[in-house]
Amino acid sequence: MQRRANQCGYLMVAAVILIVIVAFLAVALSTMLASNVNTTVNNLGSMQGLYQAEGGLEYEQRRLARNLDWYRSVTDPMATTTLNIGSDSSTVKANLPATLLRRNLTSGANVVCVYTLDRFPATGSLLLDDDIASSGEFVTYTGTTSSHASCGSLAAFTGVARGQSISGISNAASAHTRSDRVYPVTTLVTNLAASCASPATFQITAHSKFLSAGTLDIEGEEIGYANSNTAAGVMTLTGVQRCQNGTASASHNVGAPVTPMLWDGASPDYEAEATATGTVGAAVREMRKTIQR
């Protein structure tokens, strides 16, 4: 009888251990299943967010294609739009690297009336019109205002100095008509040799109006770049392609004026950067695209 009692005690201990092991395995399995479900849900949300962003880019590209003149926009980025599809959404916008004169400008005026000041720095340099070799003109400004009396209470650059020289390149002050283009101007930080061979990177002085990817005009040569990053006041361009749109190579020294791609009467003549952000639950995906017209 004593031996049977001892055997029952051993079996009871074994049964308890077995129950604990089974319970542990059940908890582990449940945790693994929950983790797999969460991973699947997150992956699905990420994919849906990507599709939302792609759809947003298509929407923004279509909206830009239907706009006769991008640079008449009074905001930059152009009006942010949220597209709602079911319980999900996509936010789209477009950055523009130039604006237009909103009033005629005499050769002696020191206030420049424009459509938008958004993303222009508080002080800096501008190029009025397109070709510095003909009617184009570099100017500097010391202030901005969203409402100036001489502009009919519209946006303006103030404290303007006309006919300025940048790296020895200049043109005299002249009259400019309404809807002439107004480009931001920055300067080259690294020398570029006269060659269509593309360097891995080059640098310009950082400027908030320049697109994160696009095309630059440096002394008549158009140079494309696929990406960029900004640090310590310097914008480093990568994915560089020189001699774009049939332009010839030339040497460019530090301090040379740099503008976004200038209008030349041929395609492409405008450039914008569309951004779309797709949001699905906690998943957020963003896509960018440089659009030329």
Q: In percent terms, what proportion of residues is strand?
A: 25-35%
Q: Look at the helices and sheets and give the structural class.
A: alpha+beta
Percent range for helical residues?
Answer: 10-25%
Give the tally of β-strands: 18
Give helix and strand order, one letter per element, not per position: HEEEEEEEEEEEEEEEEEE
Low-confidence stretches: none
Mean pLDDT, nearest integer?
88
Q: Which of globular, elongated, flat, extended, rod-shaped describes the shape?
A: elongated
Describe the structure.
The structure is a single chain. By secondary structure, this protein is of the alpha+beta class. 22% of the residues lie in helices and 34% in strands. It is built from one helix and 18 strands. Strands 3, 5, 6, 9, 11, 12, 15 and 16 form an eight-stranded antiparallel sheet that branches. The chain has a four-stranded antiparallel sheet with strand order 1-2-17-18. A three-stranded antiparallel sheet has the order 4-8-7, with no helix packed on it. A hairpin with a 5-residue loop joins β7 and β8. It is elongated and about 105 Å long. The model has no long low-confidence stretch (mean pLDDT 88).
Short account of what is shown:
22% of the residues lie in helices and 34% in strands. It has one helix spanning 2-65; strands at residues 78-85, 88-95, 99-100, 112-113, 124-128, 137-141, 143-148, 154-158, 181-187, 201-205, 214-218, 221-225, 227-231, 234-238, 241-244, 257-260, 271-280, 283-292.
